[in-house]
Design a protein that fits this description.
Blueprint lengths: L2 H6 L11 E6 L2 H12 L11 E5 L2 E7 L15 E4 L3 H10 L3 E7 L7 E7 L6 E6 L3
Parallel strand pairs: 1-3, 4-7
Antiparallel strand pairs: 2-3, 5-6, 6-7
Length: 135
């Protein structure tokens, strides 16, 4: 089997990894500033013209788009999770930002070892925060 065959599947194939997520917006700077305050308050300033935050090895990229409206039409279509070590600290920071809570911090079910919460960003998307609880 050649390297090309390995990359397309089968034994020894490498799995793709998510290198980044692009959030299209009519106001990408506002969205970048919000995500930075919410999830990466210690991040440095972006190198213009690209607005991006590196979060745990994945880039969150904010891009101006003319083909989207100012608010997400179906905000529940794509949910992305930010895994945190302390969900209550994240909750307090988000409360300071005055977020709208879609789902308050809670366990999805009694059996699941996670706490989960969903908020609304300025464009109407629904990012979630997740804390994996130790057993």
């Amino acid at each position: 089997m050649t390297n090309d065959e390995n990359e397309t599947g089968g034994p020894g194939a490498t799995s793709p990894r998510l290198g980044g997520l692009v959030l299209g917006s009519t106001d990408p700077r506002r969205l970048y500033d919000w995500y930075r305050a919410a999830f990466a308050p210690d991040a440095g300033q972006p190198s213009e013209p690209m607005l991006a935050l590196e979060l745990g090895g994945t880039w969150l990229i904010f891009e101006h788009r003319d083909d989207v409206g100012p608010k997400a039409a179906e905000p529940g279509r794509v949910l992305f999770n930010f895994e945190v070590d302390d969900i209550r600290a994240a909750e307090a920071r988000l409360n300071e930002l005055g977020v709208r809570w879609i789902r308050p911090v809670s366990k999805p079910s009694p059996d699941e070892p996670v706490l989960l919460a969903t908020v609304e960003d300025p464009d109407g998307n629904f990012p979630q925060i997740v804390e994996v609880l130790s057993a």
